[in-house]
Specification:
The chain has 453 residues and is α/β, with parallel strands linked by helices. It has helices at residues 30-38, 82-96, 112-124, 141-145, 166-176, 204-212, 258-273, 289-300, 319-330, 353-364, 370-383, 419-433, and strands at 19-23, 56-62, 65-71, 99-105, 128-133, 155-157, 192-197, 230-236, 239-245, 276-282, 304-310, 339-341, 396-403, 408-413, 441-446. The protein has 12 helices and 15 strands.
Length: 453
C-alpha cells in the first residue's frame, strides 16, 4: 500500500492520543517520513543534514485511530555544540513518547552512531519500530535485511520519498502504540494561541524557554536555529497559553529557497492560525526593514499584536533615547500595539507578557453597538465633516461594525471618502473606544444613485 489519503481536519486536543517519536541520525529522511505518515507536507524538508532541530508535533490518523507524531532533529549521542542540544531534544521526545520509530538509511547501513542510539533506546524500555528508509525498489531489500544486526527486530523497508511500504508501516505503528498514552505530551487543551515571530537571532526561542522554565526548544548564537514552528503550552500569569516559536524571517517568501522557503510559509501559516502575534525585536540594534515587514505580516493577517523589545539588558543609557526616536519614526503605524521591554536572558518583565496579551486580545474582540456607533459618528462628522470632493461633500449615511477579531467597520456614504479621512476616523475610534493591540479595518460603500433621481 503506497498511497495515503489521510484526513487533515484533526482535532487540536491531543490529550487522549498516543505519541510516536521519530528519531534517527541526521539526513536519514525522518521529516520526509513524517510527512508521509501524516499525509501532508508540514515538516520542513531539504536535502541537507540537520534541517529539523526542535521536536515538533503533528496529528495523524490511520484506520480510524488518531495519534501524535513527534519529529526530532538528527540524533548523535556524541554530538557537540548545537547538535548536542538537538540530540537532547530527541531524548526528551523519547522520554515522553509511547513508542519510537527509529529510522536508518538502508543505503548506508548501521553506523556507529546508530548503534549508540540503539543502546539509549533499549534503556528507555519503549516499543521500537525499526525503519529501513530509502528502499526505493526490490534491490534495496537486501540492504534493509542487514539491519537485523542492530538487535531491534525486523527492519521495515520503506521509501519515504515515494511512499513504498508506508501503509504497511502504519499498520505496524498502530500495533506498537497503546490505545491510550502512558504519558501525555501536552496535557492542556483550549488555550489562547500566540505566534512568537521576528527576524533571526532576536531571541524567540530563548524567550520561549524562559517562559516555559525549561529548555523547550534549541537555542544557539547562530541565526536561524529554528526551522519548524514549535507548539509549546506555557503557563504565563497563572494561565496556560499555546505558544508557537517560529523560524526567523530573513526575506520575502518569494525570494526564499529550500528549507528557508518552507519555514517562511509555515511562519506565515502560524500567524494565520494564531489569535495574537508577539513580534520580538532586538532592542540593542536599530529597528530594521525586516522587523517592520514581520510586523506588517501580523497586521495584514488581522491578528492582535504585542511588540516586545528583547535583550533589554544590553541597552545602555546612550541607546535608550536613540531607540525612542526609532520607535516614534519606524513604528508610527502600530503605535496602538502594547510594548514591553524584556530580557529572555535575565527574565526581566517576562511575567508582564500575560497582561499585554490580554490587552491586545480584548481590543481585538471589542464590539461597538450600532446605535452607539452611529450617534458617535454623527457627532464626529458634525464637528469635522468629510472633505469636499469634486465640488460635493460626501455624507456618512450609516455605520456598522461588520465583525470582530479584528474589528471591521463599514461606512455607507453618499460619495467617496478620502483615505486621509478614513485614517482620521480610525484614529478617533481608537481614542474614544480603545482597540489597543488590534488592527482596525474601515471600508466604505458608496450609495448608488437611483436613475429616476
Amino acid at each position: 500500500m503506497t498511497e495515503l489519503d489521510l484526513p487533515t481536519d484533526l482535532p487540536d486536543d491531543r490529550s487522549d492520543q498516543p505519541v510516536l517519536a521519530v528519531v534517527g541520525r541526521p539526513n536519514v529522511g525522518k521529516s520526509t517520513l513524517v510527512n508521509r505518515l501524516i499525509g501532508r507536507r508540514e515538516a520542513v524538508v531539504e536535502d541537507v543534514p540537520g534541517v529539523t532541530r526542535d521536536r515538533v508535533t503533528y496529528d495523524a490518523q490511520w484506520r480510524g485511530r488518531r495519534f501524535t507524531v513527534v519529529d526530532t532533529g538528527g540524533w548523535d549521542p556524541d554530538a557537540v555544540g548545537i547538535q548536542k542540544a538537538v540530540a537532547a531534544q530527541a531524548e526528551v521526545a523519547v522520554a515522553a513518547a509511547d513508542a519510537i520509530l527509529f529510522v536508518v538509511d538502508a543505503n548506508v547501513g548501521a553506523t556507529v552512531s546508530d548503534e549508540a542510539v540503539v543502546k539509549v533506546l533499549r534503556r528507555a524500555k519503549k516499543p521500537v519500530v525499526l525503519v529501513a528508509n530509502k528502499v526505493d525498489d526490490e534491490r534495496g531489500e537486501a540492504d534493509a535485511a542487514m539491519l537485523w544486526s542492530l538487535g531491534l527486530g525486523e527492519p521495515y523497508a520503506v521509501s519515504a520519498l515515494h511512499g513504498r511500504g508506508a501503509g504497511d508501516l502504519l499498520d505496524v505503528i498502530l500495533e506498537a502504540l497503546p490505545e491510550t498514552p502512558a504519558e501525555r505530551f501536552d496535557e492542556q487543551a483550549g488555550p489562547r494561541r500566540v505566534a512568537l515571530v521576528g527576524r533571526p537571532n532576536v531571541g524567540k526561542s530563548s524567550l520561549l524557554n524562559r517562559l516555559a522554565k525549561e529548555e523547550r526548544v534549541v537555542v544557539d548564537s547562530v541565526a536561524g536555529t529554528t526551522r519548524d514552528p514549535v507548539d509549546s503550552y506555557v503557563e504565563v500569569g497563572g494561565e496556560v497559553w499555546k505558544f508557537v516559536d517560529t523560524a526567523g524571517l530573513r526575506r520575502r517568501v518569494a525570494h526564499a529557497s529550500g528549507a528557508e522557503y518552507y519555514s517562511s510559509l509555515r511562519t506565515s501559516a502560524a500567524i494565520d492560525a494564531a489569535e495574537v502575534a508577539v513580534v520580538l525585536l532586538d532592542a540593542s540594534e536599530p529597528i530594521s526593514e525586516q522587523d517592520q515587514r514581520v510586523i506588517g505580516m501580523a497586521v495584514d493577517a488581522g491578528r492582535a499584536l504585542v511588540i516586545a523589545f528583547n535583550k533589554w539588558d544590553l541597552v545602555d543609557e546612550d541607546r535608550r533615547p536613540q531607540l525612542a526616536k526609532e520607535i516614534e519614526r519606524e513604528l508610527a503605524r502600530v503605535e496602538w500595539a502594547p510594548r514591553l521591554n524584556v530580557s529572555a536572558l535575565t527574565g526581566r518583565s517576562v511575567d508582564k507578557l500575560s497582561v499585554a496579551l490580554h490587552t491586545a486580545l480584548e481590543g481585538w474582540e471589542t464590539r461597538i453597538p450600532t446605535g452607539k456607533l452611529n450617534q458617535w459618528m454623527g457627532e464626529l462628522t458634525a464637528k469635522t465633516p468629510p472633505p469636499v470632493r469634486s465640488g460635493k461633500q460626501p455624507k456618512i449615511l450609516f455605520a456598522t461594525q461588520a465583525g470582530t477579531r479584528p474589528p471591521r467597520f463599514v461606512l455607507f456614504t453618499s460619495g467617496f471618502l478620502e483615505a486621509g479621512y478614513r485614517r482620521f476616523i480610525e484614529r478617533r475610534l481608537r481614542e474614544d473606544f480603545g482597540f489597543a493591540g488590534s488592527p482596525i479595518e474601515v471600508s466604505v460603500k458608496v450609495r448608488e444613485k437611483n436613475k429616476k433621481d
